Amino acid sequence: MDFLSTPELLDIDRQHVWHPYAAMPNPLPMFPVKSAQGVYLELEDGRRLVDGMSSWWTCIHGYGHPRLNQAAKDQIDRMAHVMFGGLTHQPAVQLAQQLIRLTPEPLQHVFFCDSGSVAVEVAMKMAIQYWFNLGQPQKNQFLTIRNGYHGDIFAAMSVCDPVNGMHHLFHDVLRQQFFADAPQIGFEQPWDKADIDSLAQLLEQHHHEIGAVIFEPVVQGAGGMRFYNPEYVRCARELCDQYDVLLILDEIATGFGRSGRMFACEYADISPDILCLGKALTGGFMSLAATLTTKRVSDAFAQGEAGVLMHGPTFMGNPLACAVALESIAVLEASDWPGQVSAIADQLKADLAPCRALPAVRDVRVLGAIGVVELHEPVDMATVQPQVVKAGAWLRPFGRLLYTMPPYIISTNELRVITRAIHGVCVSLSGG
Ligand SMILES: *Cc1c(COP(=O)(O)O)cnc(C)c1O
Known about the structure:
Elements: H1 6-16, E1 33-37, E2 40-43, E3 48-51, H2 54-57, H3 66-78, H4 90-102, E4 107-113, H5 116-133, E5 141-145, H6 154-158, E6 178-180, H7 197-206, E7 210-215, E8 219-220, E9 226-227, H8 230-243, E10 246-250, E11 274-277, E12 289-294, H9 295-303, H10 319-334, H11 337-352, E13 361-367, E14 370-375, H12 381-390, E15 393-394, E16 401-404, H13 412-429
Parallel strand pairs: 3-15, 5-6, 5-7, 7-10, 10-11
Antiparallel strand pairs: 1-2, 2-3, 4-12, 8-9, 11-12, 13-14, 14-16
The structure holds pyridoxal-5'-phosphate.
């Protein structure tokens, strides 16, 4: 590969390359990255930024981890990819074994797919086919909670928050689902079971049509960065059992330690019928996701009329991605990640506390290695993004949310670069 000059790169990018949630041509500033190492992104102009985003929750061990790089190189020399229809291999089978060991005991079967959104699509399809197999095809709707985020493909979008997810744009093509009020009781606040009334009522009224309840346990990510009481998750599990509805938990963002537990459902001490994993699964190396299910769900496929699960992506079980994921799990388990995550939580709480007093700030909240400053007004990306970069940090605010979920290996001083940048933005927005 020959390299373009930076002005050329930026010009072609602006004219021809679509970025996430962007217009074309892209009017916003763009920062070219040359390389990444540890918690640092190195820009083409030589500036080094402390990454407060872990590349959207993925890069938990930092960039260029020698063990992950080596696992990828070793696997490339054996095979980068083979089809998964009729063939199987060490990386996929061993990764399935590890995921079954790490997740709650009832989850015994693993479906590998390309991305988080597809893992959600597969979960929803599984639920629909499950009820079809049991002779109840009318149970093909979903119940979710507001402020959720489950991905950008149509099935996943139909269960994203109707406002954040811009459902008005897609009204005629999106399946209409049921939406319960979002939980209001915070992670540490005393539980009141009235918080789950809305979900309970919708289940009572519509359980004949509902195949599954789907939501993100304890931490709602891109739909609002909200933390809520684990009792909600436990009660939702009970209600699903009571009304004979499956429970799908989306731990694509929360999985692999981010919330302070390996999986956020551990706070509620329950198991879903179907679990979606993605994001940090490969330690930020490449796209891979998985949908896990119980024997109860998969048994229905052995007996039912639609005997097979109708899904099979071309790159299913990609050996390279599975090999890196296996190594990432080994690196995670060999580390003191609970200690690292709780140290990050403590520092985020202390460092972000002064933001609370600023007039632009509505709320400050921290859970595990996730720190959120909610503002009164949406930020202007065109000014805030360069301001953050100038402070030596990489953050990607959206709407009224300034937030960070750094790599677990971040040091106290490096995390201080992030929290100072956040505080600096809050001061500017407060007119200081
Ligand atoms: C990011 C995310 C998804 C979508 O994953 P992609 O890999 O972007 O398709 C789904 N659910 C949750 C909770 C997520 O955070």
